[in-house]
Amino acid sequence: MNKPHVLVVDDNLTVSKLAVMVLKKGGYTVTAAGSGREALGMISEGLRPDILLLDHSLPDMQGDQLLESLPLEQRQRLRVLLTTGYDSQALRAQYPQDLPVQTLQKPWDAGDLLQAISALEET
Fold first, then answer.
1. Interatomic CA distance for residues 95 and 111, integer angstroms
2. Are 117 and 108 in contact (CB under 8 A)?
3. Which of 35, 43, 49, 54 is nearest to 94 (CA)?
4. pTM for the complete prediction?
5. Would you kindly state where each structural domain of the chain is located, as residue ranges?
6. Which stretches of 45-94 are DSSP H helices?
7. Above 80 in pLDDT, residue 1?
8. Are 81 and 51 in contact (CB under 8 A)?
9. ∠ at Cα 11 (28, 45), nearest 5°?
10. For the segment 61-110, what is each residue's pLDDT rounded down to a tens digit?
11. How large is the C-alpha radius of gyration of the chain?
């Protein structure tokens, strides 16, 4: 079985590069975007990720705004791992309740990331 395609959306280049490296070593296909607009552009051009590793606080929009900007068809099939340094339970309430959104508290390590992504594969 093929591993899911993960789109990493984080404006912190160090965090983004680390996530891409960890996920690729874990056997995932990975694409990275440095902003919400960049991610939306990739998706509008045909990118179809299975999982979105999404930083809640992007410079151009919040993570929930990015999700609400996605076409319904894309949003319905997407699983989301929200990364944040804020209170993850409070933030989760801002996200569409019909989406499988999990949270990963920052700072995370490679094992935490792989475990969280793996758990999303099963949803």
1. 25
2. no
3. 54
4. 0.92
5. 5-121
6. 63-69, 72-77, 88-92
7. no
8. yes
9. 60
10. 999 899 989 988 888 889 999 998 777 676 777 776 777 788 898 899 99
11. 13
Q: Which amino acid, 103? A: T
Contacts of 3 (CB under 8 A, 6+ apart): 26, 27, 28, 29, 121
Dist CA 52 CA 85 (whole Å): 17
Beta strands in 1-123 (DSSP E): 5-9, 29-33, 51-55, 79-84, 101-105
Enter the tokens of residue 102: 């999990």
Q: Which residues pair with 53 in a beta bridge?
A: 8, 81
Q: What is the pLDDT of residue 88?
A: 67
Question: What topology is assigned to 5-121 in CATH?
Answer: Rossmann fold (3.40.50)
Q: Which pair of structure tokens corresponds to residue 84?
A: 């944040």
